[in-house]
Amino acid sequence: MGSYEFLWTQAGQTFKRIAERFKRENARPSHLVLPAVAEQCARETRDLLHKSKVVNFGIRIYGMADYPQRLRDAQYPVDLLYFQGSWDLAESPSVAIVGTRSPSDEGKALAARLAERLVEDRFTVVSGLAAGIDTAALEAAIACGGATIAVIGTPLSNAYPPANTELQSRIAREHLLISQIPVLQYSRQDWRRNRSFFPQRNITMSALTRATIIIEAGDTSGTLMQARAAVDQGRQLFIMDSCFRNSHLRWPAQYEAEGAIRVREYEDIKAHLANASPDR
Amino acid sequence: MPMLLQIDDLTRPNHPYLQAQDECHYLLEYTPKQGYNFSATNQLILNLKKSPDRQGKSDYHYKAEAILQAGDMLRSSLNEEWLASGPTFVPIPCSKSKTHLLYDDRMIRVLRRLTRGSAADVRELIVQTEDLECFHEGYRLRPDQLARYYELDTELLEDSPREVVLFDDMLTTGCHFKAAQSAILQHWPDGVPIAGIFLARVVRPEVSTENLLDFFG
Q1: Is A218 in contact with A101 (CB distance < 8 Å)?
Q2: B126: which strand partners?
Q3: CA–CA distance from B127 to each of A4, A85, B124, B171 (Å)?
Q4: Is B31 in contact with A88 (Cβ distance < 8 A)?
Q5: Domain range B24-216, its CATH number among 3.30.1890, 3.40.50, 1.10.238, 3.30.2390
Q6: I need a surface site. Which of A158, A251, B2, B144 has the fewest CB within 10 A?
Q7: B205–chain A Cβ distance below 8 A for any pair
Q8: Digit-coded pLDDT (tens) for B26-81
Q9: Where are the domains of chain B?
Q10: Closest CB to B28 among A59, A65, A84
């Protein structure tokens, strides 16, 4: 953990560069950093998390027996994840519901209804804890007794938007909260640079889940990062019919041409999920 | 090849009896009583712990499969050169003595699988003199109290081991490890290197470190 945090504090790091370095040197984080430096960074990381009342948390490192192998399907897979809650859920059949931070009322209602249907069919609902669609899907899944996973674009110690602080704590206590974001580096750089972490977690979210459902998204939305990842990683991608009906948007047709499924009713999703590979 | 991890400052608070100088390693993390059983880890542990009184029932063969799987996973995580140096693996006794109907020999079977074809030696060095209630049923002793129920098998004491590895499937508070460690050190007061290897460490996310320490004093 300390080694991973240290590597991130080096100038100009990205998930791509870090993943490439591990791959090139066939190494784990601890192989690349002096133990004393790593221990110092681990202590600082733990102190930062403790200060924000994140006391009980765990990590998963590539190479550990319970690191999910399917995360390696990402182009630049994460080598370390922080989590709180029940890791067991990471291996449950799961589906991501994502979309814009400023949805229409119909979009929010649709996200909630889909989450409820997925819970009925015993899927874990996964989302990013952003405002809008993410929040609507997670809240609805929890309200009807379902299991959820939130993959966040901040460290475990931060919540964004702040209005979701309580929801994030609840998911950390009763469900599963996952973050790949380096704690030290996040605390040392400003929000403009930290903003770039948000789309990165969408790539991990896609790799973690069996399928991604997009409710609403503009042509430049960060949500499309997850659409791209889902296609590249061989995951099923579902796009709601309303996105196709919006004549201003070009992306739905583009992704449909690459194999995305246009969803007119829930049964479209259900039928395709039943055919998906069981380990995804 | 799965990676064996060492208990460190980050993980030690979950195991309040362990001290910084105790060298303990684990392969998996097990989260009990969460109501979910999706993960391969949780299923492996639950199958491994199936009570011997289920023998003959249709699900009992899962236990034998789990024993082989646990042995193979652990073997693939170990350094073959180190195994060739001939460490002595000692199973930590389960709650029932060998003559009890519910005595479970899973640990020795995992160790036999783990060490097959290697120079490593497996010895049931520690004998439990009385039956105890299962620890997971809530009856708790401190390591010094538990150690009173441990004796060493005198027939197995002739060759001094060069290194002892205490083995258990689960690391919870660290009580069994500390009791077994003290039983061995009483016989070899000049010291023999003792490490611990566990299939899984137990993580209870709902219990904070402070509460555990309050509970165990």
Answers
A1: no
A2: B152
A3: 43, 38, 7, 19
A4: yes
A5: 3.40.50
A6: B144
A7: yes
A8: 999 887 766 566 788 888 988 998 888 888 888 888 999 999 999 999 999 999 99
A9: 24-216
A10: A65
